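ugh ok fine here u go
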Amino acid sequence: MEIELHHPAIVAPKVPVALVEAALEDARSAVPRNVHRTVARAVARGSDKTKRLRLERLARVVMATDSRITSPVDVWAGDWSVLPVEAFEAIDSGIQQVWASSVSTRNAMRDSVRAVVRESLKAGILTYDQATPMLNAVAPEKQVRDEEKQARGHVPPDRVRQVFHDLASNKSLIARRDAALIALLVGAGMRRAEIVSIDLADLDHHHENIVVQGKGNVVRTVPLAPGVRRALRPWLAVRGSEPGPLITPVTRKLPMRADIARRMATNTVAQAVTRRFGGGVKPHDLRRTFTGDLLDSGADLSIVSKVLGHVSPATTAGYDRRGQAARLAAVEKLHVPFEEVALGTCATRR
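structure:
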């Protein structure tokens, strides 16, 4: 596979989902047939979503850079370790031209390319001297922090309070389920995919902690706030103690009951949030709100990061809605033992 900057695409090319799925399945096999080792190693770790995105982005950046390459399969089958540095420089130029409007998108595209190089270096396919100029060619851009962005997606406390008030006045089984669901989103900061995977057995006897399997199959224990525990009790009373998912679908036939034989779909979680909050609020907005509330309360960033299941506190910091005023208030508490110099007493050097 030869890559050079050749008529970069005006519109970023698409990659069929079926091709990505087939490539990921091939990469998982002991001896991949159509995915080169350098690429297979780049998608060996992380969640399935991350692996799919990485394969898709690799294909897109190459096809966007060099219009002569039209098949994603050719991109995945190529030996990236033998590409010259000029190929990586061409890819970076292609990324800058095709995704000119977004620094974060450009960096995401670069990261997929860098993953191939990093994993090849770890495997000994590339030496440090070979990998370094490749990585430098697709180095991420520095981003200026958007202070206003941190406040976007957070749901005001009055609105959260109103939703729980409306649910309290609704005696239906679905309302009890939705109250528990929303409490886990806004009061425990869980991802919707995590909530639908939780079993009743993951909840401890006192309802104070719950075991969650997050991204990359990383297991963590999430402490539950008193309000979350109170929201769970009415749902558990009607759900019953049978083994199965903690949050379940509700049967349509009367009398309605919790369908413990099935798990909720993540789309159903989103529909429940829309039903209670309106179309402008998504499940992840409630997770952002939880993070902002904890940080506003003075919780340590690293602790909040562990509760959320973030690999890096830097990810958690992206949810921080506190502005310059909060940072100024923090440093005002710092004592610096500076002593004033009495005017007129300083000796003059000649």
